[in-house]
Amino acid sequence: MAHIKFEESSSETICSTEFRNSSCHHASKYMQKENMDTYLTKKIITNLITRSVTAAHEAAKYLPRTTSQEFLTITSKGPYRETVTIYDKVLEKKILENLTLLNKDDSYLGEETGHYNGNSKVKWIIDPIDGTLNFARRIPAYSISIAAEVDGKVVAGTVYDPSHQDTFTAGLGLGARCNGYKIKSSSTFNLSDAVVSTGFSKNPEIRRKQAQIISKLLTEVQDIRSCGSAALDLCWLAAGKLDAYYEHDLCYWDLAAGSLIASEAGADIIIQGDFVIGAAPAISKKLNILLNHS
């Protein structure tokens, strides 16, 4: 199992506040098991995984059965007009209804709903549709992402890919799985052999910087992809389909579950504010240096 490493970053984006508020900035959040509360056991983590899987699967039943765009009401939000549909809100509502059946005191942070501070040790981090633009355009690359924190540490995560009916899960110290089968990250040794995925900010200024990075990276790797769902990218990294993934300007709900899944599958994960780098261990250091000097 690789480690998730958090590094300080001065970057500020529309989602950076969420990282600070969620304490995502601190390395103890995922991996320092020696400091974990005795409350946290394998049974509890497994229960949180089961609850998140059930919530994701039940919510997915409310996705439209048709692929016709006429059934979608597409709007936008935020200063950069991010795509949002009625299903983003419907699914988040259904997920919260399911997750709070057993304990209404759980806290949560949802992309559509915002914060709720309950009295229990558990906090749910929810992205009802990660890759909404793909969903709205009928491109089969979007996911439902649910992570569970206990005392400020992400300990369980589920990412469900409805298009391919793939369910990715992980528990802290318990490894990562896809549809119940253990998965392992890539063993790629050379950066020149790596297939790397990335995503793009809606902020024009950040996009210009991203274009500069890609122009330098493209000659150093085998090829570059862009899936459009950070959670899926991290899961495909976990499953060895990708050798590396990086992206700027992410929100906490984009990566909370996927980062744990990738790390538990053996990938190195480095989080610098709202910038995440995930890679096969053998190429992680070189990729990190290349991305941070581009």
From TrEMBL:
UniProt keyword terms in alphabetical order? Hydrolase, Magnesium, Metal-binding, Transcription, Transcription antitermination, Transcription regulation
Q: Which reaction does it catalyse?
A: a myo-inositol phosphate + H2O = myo-inositol + phosphate
* UniProt entry tagged with the keyword GTP-binding: no
Q: Give the InterPro entries listed for this entry.
A: IMPase, Inositol_monoP_metal-BS, Inositol_monophosphatase-like, Inositol_monophosphatase_CS
User: What PROSITE patterns does this protein map onto?
Assistant: IMP_1, IMP_2
Q: Where does Mg(2+) bind?
A: 111, 127, 129-130, 254
Provide the E.C. number(s) assigned to this enzyme. Answer: 3.1.3.25
UniProt GO molecular function: inositol monophosphate 1-phosphatase activity; metal ion binding
| Cofactor(s) required, per the database record | Mg(2+)
The biological processes this protein is annotated with in GO are:
inositol metabolic process; phosphatidylinositol phosphate biosynthetic process; signal transduction; transcription antitermination
Q: Hey, which family's this protein in?
A: Belongs to the inositol monophosphatase superfamily.
Its recorded name reads: Inositol-1-monophosphatase
List the source organism.
Photorhabdus cinerea
The organism's taxonomic lineage, starting at the top: Bacteria, Pseudomonadati, Pseudomonadota, Gammaproteobacteria, Enterobacterales
